[in-house]
Each structure stands twice: as C-alpha cells, then as structure tokens.
Amino acid sequence: MTACRLCPRLCGAKRTADEPGLCGVNTQLGFFRIGKVMAHFGEEPFISGQSGSGTLFFSGCALGCRFCQNYPISQATEGVFRGRIYSESEIINSIEALISQGVHNINWVTASHYSLDVIKVIDQLRMRGHRLPMIWNTSAYERVETMRQLDGKIQIYLPDFKFFDDSLSAGLTSVRNYPAIAQRAILEMHRQQPLNVFDRDGHMISGFVLRHLILPGHYRDSLRIIDWIVEHLPADIAISLMSQFTPFAENLSRLSDFPELSRKLTTYEYQKVVDYALQRGLTQVMTQQRTAATATMTPDFT
Predict the structure, then answer these.
(1) Nearest to 237 by CA among 172, 158, 165, 297
(2) What residues does each domain of the chain span?
(3) DSSP character string of 194-207
(4) If one looks up domain 32-297 in CATH, what number appears?
C-alpha cells in the first residue's frame, strides 16, 4: 500500500514500520495485527449465545478514544502496539478453529483499518463452505465508501454511536468530526442490513444493532443521540444502551481534564437515558445491569 485511504483520516500512510498509519497499523497488505482471537461471551445474548461469538480484536484504532475499554491493544504503549501479526492463511486457520468450537458467528472488532484484507478472508471462508454470520463491530468512525465495499459480505452490523457533540468528540478522541462521520456510516450500515433476523434458537443471523455507551457526566449528550435516532431511523430499531463504562487506572492520567470519567455511571444517569429513549417512542431498547461495569467485560490482552 502506497497511500492508505480506508478510514476517514485519509492519512495516506504506507503502513510500514517506518511510516505507520495514524491508526497504528505497520503491517503490509495481507497481514493483520490482532490482540486476541477468542470465543467471546460479553456481547448481547443473541450474539454470544451459549457457545460464544468468534471474536477477533484488532490492534490499533483510527479514533483513539482516551477512555477506550480495549486500550491495551487499541493504542500504543511507548510507541509499541500489542498483538501478534497474522498472515491471511493464519487468520483463516484461527477462524476455522473457532468454528470447530461451535461459535455462533465471526465478530470483527475494530477492523476497518484492515477492511480490504478482511474482505479477502471472508471470501476465502465462503469458498471453503463456511456460512456463519459475519459481524462488523465498529466505533462507526468509518468512510461510507469503505462500508459499501462490505455490502453483501457482512450480515450483522454493531456500530457504536459514541458522541453527538463535536467538542466532546475533540476532547475525548483524536478527531473533531466524529459525529457527522458516524451518522453517515450508521445510515449506510442500516441501509445494508435493515431487518433483524434470528434463527430458531434466538441467535441473530442478520441485522443491525446500534450501541451507545453512556458516559459519566455526559448523559445529556446521550439524549441528543436518542433524538437523532428518532429522527433518522425506524422506531423499532434495536438499540443497546450500555452502562458498562469502567474507569481504568492506566487511562486516568489521560483524562485529567475530564474528572467525571474517573467514576462509573450512576443509576440516575443511566435511567434518564433509558426512560428518554422509551418516551421518544423507541420500542426495541436493550439495557444492561449495573453489574456490567466491571473489568470482566473486557478481555485480558496481556
């Protein structure tokens, strides 16, 4: 690759050790840096099921949230990203090992900076006869042009609409224009998979679920996201409102100007957002128990 244009940053990096992308990628086309490959049980019940979601947690990230729950692999430590480098054949072998364990789907987490190679892997898996649903698990910081290349390859979209306010985005990530970009990407993902379909055991096999992690001290921004959803998406859209924000000691130094993020979400804040979503007429609102706000929801990336 001579000039990467996969994500909204359009940084034009060669993605080599000498010239990595702003997302942190320093592998050539055909290779991936992955922090964890596992059967994951921390997704919504109809995603994880009884046998888990076959999940690949990719290293690096174009968005760079300062409070990231997967920070050990999403962001560099002393200039080094955690994770093992996989070739295309190695990643296919790893996915087939997950399939042999009985996972319900293949879950690509923060994989947009590898999307061209992901498409090749999905095509190879289909050629080998594997028919499990493919999940695109994303921050929604995506180029619509890149998302259109995934049309027909991805059966389930799990975007997370993080912020509505530009200044909040600028303060908590490395980009200011996240809200507008995310809105366009979310609408494109919903266009591709507008209907939720489940198998006889209640596992999702195609569809769209919009997630939102409510941040301590910022529930009013969440209310603006609800307003946008009501205006632009159907009332029966599946919404997952998450209360699992967990402050990690390693992140606190980067959040000194956001002291409210040194604590967990309160019941009052969470319930305000849930009640507002219902009041605005959304009919498929999924909620979390407060006990979800623990480090056990985050895989061990060491």
Answers:
(1) 158
(2) 32-297
(3) -S-EE-TTS-EEEE
(4) 3.20.20.70
